Each structure stands twice: as structure tokens, then as C-alpha cells.
Amino acid sequence: MQKYILIIGACGQIGTELTLTLREQYGNDKVIASDIREGSESLMQSGPFEILDATDYDALEEVIAYYEISEVYLMAAMLSATAEKFPMRAWNLNMNSLFNVLNLAKEKKIDKIFWPSSIAVFGPNTPENQTPQSTIMEPTTVYGISKQSGERWCSYYHHKFGVDVRSLRYPGLISWKTMPGGGTTDYAVEIYHKALAESAYTCFLKEDTSLPMMFMDDAIRATLELMQADGRKIKIRSSYNLAAMSFTPSEIAKSIQEYIPNFEMSYNPDFRQAIADTWPSSIDDSQARKDWGWEPAFDLKKTTREMLDNLDKS
Ligand SMILES: NC(=O)c1ccc[n+]([C@@H]2O[C@H](COP(=O)([O-])OP(=O)(O)OC[C@H]3O[C@@H](n4cnc5c(N)ncnc54)[C@H](O)[C@@H]3O)[C@@H](O)[C@H]2O)c1
After folding, report:
1. What is the DSSP letter of 262?
2. Are 205 and 77 part of one and the same domain?
3. Which sequence positions are flagged as catalytic?
4. Which helix (H) or strand (E) holds 44?
5. For a Cys-Cys bond, which of 137, 166, 227, 310 suits 176, CB 3.0-4.6 Å?
6. Shared domain check, 149 and 254
7. How far apart, in Å, do the first and last CA atoms of the chain sit?
8. Phi first, then psi: what are they for 178, rounded to 5°?
9. What residues contact 279, with CB distance under 8 A and at least 6 apart?
10. Measuring from each residue's beta carbon to the nearest atom of ligand 1, which residues come in under 6 Å?
């Protein structure tokens, strides 16, 4: 049977690269990108695209029937920093879009779902270092509350209705193809752009704020490995801890200075510092390693080299 895949929120930071990678693997016409806005040229020109609002169940159902979709990647969401400004809009988007795809799977209109969670599910009472898979959560942000609730609903739909939903708690993601969409870890992308353009960056987090991070290629590979794994290996149906590296703003600045010695970093923390203060410094992802063989490939040094090389060329 032919497999057709739908990406919802395909024009964002992760959706763009996910769509392009899936198109390489499965064929351009097999992967339908959708969003409420148009995306980059490479995304728009490489395969089918639909304007689609993730909160509109009927529209979603129509696109899924038209293209005979079996697998959905739901990437539409309002991210942590923006969600603090628009709490009800964030809750409505993040929860209703998830219910829509979970219900379509429950009704057997699709077979498999990927939905990303985040390290934002953790909170100030969570053990900060090597945060375990199962631990105290108690998130204090609008975004974190929506992700934690989403995890519980994914687990519920799997156990109650047999829905094949799979999820990863992404750390902050670093990429050069698309800019980030309003999160607390956005600084770790902006810094490379400013380093090349101005040899200087003012960071909105304090110099010693350590957060879990990952290069986009690792995040996309983890997503595909999880989705392609035998279902019997997927023991966690809420969301898997996933890790690659942790660093502070001062450490990323030092790694950039190895290539751009006159790069200058200054600090002017804003409201995002309070969000970062409630998140873990590092993550224990041993369950993902054990269940489906997860292993990261990019550390900070390699990430900095990839970011500066590719941004310099583009
Ligand atoms: N980027 C990160 O560092 C990170 C970390 C952890 C988790 N995540 C999660 O990964 C997912 C994707 O994140 P991202 O960074 O690509 O986000 P992003 O903000 O870059 O992209 C989200 C996309 O969703 C689209 N969208 C918004 N409302 C929509 C709607 N009603 N219907 C359809 N599309 C809509 C936007 O236009 C945008 O293109 C989100 O669930 C996010 O919470 C991201």
C-alpha cells in the first residue's frame, strides 16, 4: 500500500526540514505540506502544499481523505515565549490541534501520529540535572502546561483506543535553514546570524543558564527513527526524553570565538530568563537509547561549525 504523509505546521523551524527530509525518503508527491501560511521556496516548490488550519477538524478530515493520508506529523503550535503573551490562543491551538488528529486516528481515518512535546513539560521542582524520564513535572508556563496535558492525552488515546501516537520531548533546536518561531532557546540560533553579520550579540538569557539543546539534523533523525521503529519497541506513549548536549550562553560564545575571535557577547536578560530558570539543565535520555536505539551525532563544536559554514554560504 502507498503511504501518504501530511505535515501540519510544515513552514516552521522544524516542519520545513522535516518535510524536505521526508520528501527525500518517500518521494516528493507522497509528502503533503500544510500550514496557515506559505513557506520557503524549497518547501513550496518541492511537492504538494495546502493551506490548512490545524484547529479546523472538517478541513483536516477533507485533506486527509483527498490525499489518502495514513501518517500525520503535527508541528503546528504556539511556542513558549509567545504563549506567555497569548495564553488562551496558545491553549486553543496547542490542545485543539492535538485533539483533532487524535480523534481522526481514533476514527481510523489515519494510522499513525507524530506529535512533539518539549523540555517545557518540566518545572521548578523537577530534578535539574540529568532529568529522568519519569519525574516531578509541575510546569509553570502556558506552553509547558499545554505540552504536559498533551502528553497525558496521547498516552490515554494509545491505551484506551489503540491510537499509534509517538512523541519526543525536544530540547532547544538549532538550525540554519529556518528561523525559530518564538521559543526560549531562540538565542542559540540568533547568535550565529549576529556573529556573522555584526561580530556581536546581546543575549536575552544570563551567561550561566545551562539548557538542553540539539542540532536540527539530530532532531529530524530522531523523529524518523522513532516513527519507523517497530511499534512493540515504543514503550513510552506519553513522550520520550531526548538529549544531545547542554551548554550556557557563555559556552556557545566561546565556541563561536574559535572561528570569529573578535566576536563579542553581552547580556540583557528579559522575561525569557524566568522561563529558562524553570527548565532542566540536562536530560537523561537512556530510555530512548534503550527502546529504539537513539544516539545523537552533534555536539556543540560540530554544531557551531555546521551553523557558521552553512549560514556563511547562504
Ligand atoms: N523549535 C524548538 O526548539 C522546539 C523545541 C521543543 C518542541 N518544539 C515543538 O515542535 C513543534 C514545531 O515547532 P517549531 O519550532 O517548528 O515551531 P514554529 O513556530 O517554527 O512553526 C510552527 C508552524 O505552525 C504554523 N501554525 C500556527 N498556527 C497554525 C494553525 N492553526 N494551523 C496550521 N499551522 C499553524 C505556523 O505558521 C508555523 O509555520 C511545536 O509543537 C513545538 O512546540 C519545538
Report:
1. T
2. no
3. 143
4. helix 41-45
5. 310
6. no
7. 39
8. -135, 145
9. 119, 120, 122, 184, 211, 212
10. 8-9, 11-15, 35-37, 52-55, 75-77, 79, 93, 116, 118, 170, 172-173, 180-183, 185
Look up the domain containing 126 and give its range: 4-167+216-235
Geometric angle at alpha carbon 38, from 34 and 44, rounded to 5°: 75
Measured by CA distance, the residue closest to atom 44 of ligand 1 is 170
**Digit-coded pLDDT (tens) for 44-100:** 999 999 999 999 999 999 999 999 999 999 999 999 999 999 999 999 999 999 999
Are the C-beta atoms of 294 and 225 separated by less than 8 Å? yes
Secondary structure (3-state) at 313? helix
The C-alpha cell at 141 is: 508556563
The pLDDT of residue 1 is: 57
Write the CA distances from 28 to 10, 21, 48, 222, integer angstroms. Answer: 14, 10, 8, 21
Quick one: 143 and 252 in the same domain?
no
Here the cell at position 119 is 523540555
Can you give the CATH number for the domain in which 43 is found? Answer: 3.40.50.720
Q: Is the alpha carbon torsion for 26, 287, 251, 301 positive or negative?
A: negative
Q: Of 11, 35, 189, which is best to mutate to test ligand 1, by the most ligand atoms within 8 angstroms of its C-beta?
A: 35
Ligand 1 centre to CA of 9 (Å) is 6
Q: How far apart are CA 200 and CA 193, in angstroms?
A: 10
